[in-house]
Amino acid sequence: MERIIEDPNEKQWGMFTHLAALAVFFLPAFGNIIGPLIIYLIKKDEYEFVNDQGKEVLNFQITWSIIFFVSIILIFIGIGLFMLIGFGIAWLILVIVATIKANEGVYYRYPMTIKFLN
């Protein structure tokens, strides 16, 4: 059974935590980590949902930053560009899905994520 948050403020801040990953389009060097990290640090003690989802989004963004870095290295052998495009599209879709789920108050879990923070 999935847990659902009812408090609209808590849902909204949970959504912003995921949405902040799009800061990568304004801060290409780790904006996808810095954006969610700021919201997580500010609101984690106020809202349990933000604490949980903040860790989830940070784990996902760190994992996928590693994937993108490896893809950039692999450009030199010819497959990295295809990996960047494919993983980039998947990353965007997963961030959008997580944002929508958080807005619904659902504790979302990203697939293919290394747990750096528990």
Characterization of the model:
The chain has 118 residues and is mainly α. 64% of the residues lie in helices and 0% in strands. The protein has one domain. It has helices spanning 8-19, 31-43, 48-73, 80-103. The two termini are 21 Å apart.
Structure summary, number of beta strands: 0
The succession of helices and strands, N to C, reads HHHH
Strand content: under 5%
* Average pLDDT score: 95
Low confidence ranges: none
Number of helices: 4
Number of individual domains: 1
**Proportion of residues in helical segments:** 55-70%
In short:
By secondary structure, this protein is an all-alpha fold. It is built from four helices and no strands. The chain has one domain.
Secondary structure: elements and pairs:
Blueprint: H1 8-19, H2 31-43, H3 48-73, H4 80-103
Write out key terms for the chains shown:
118 residues; mainly alpha
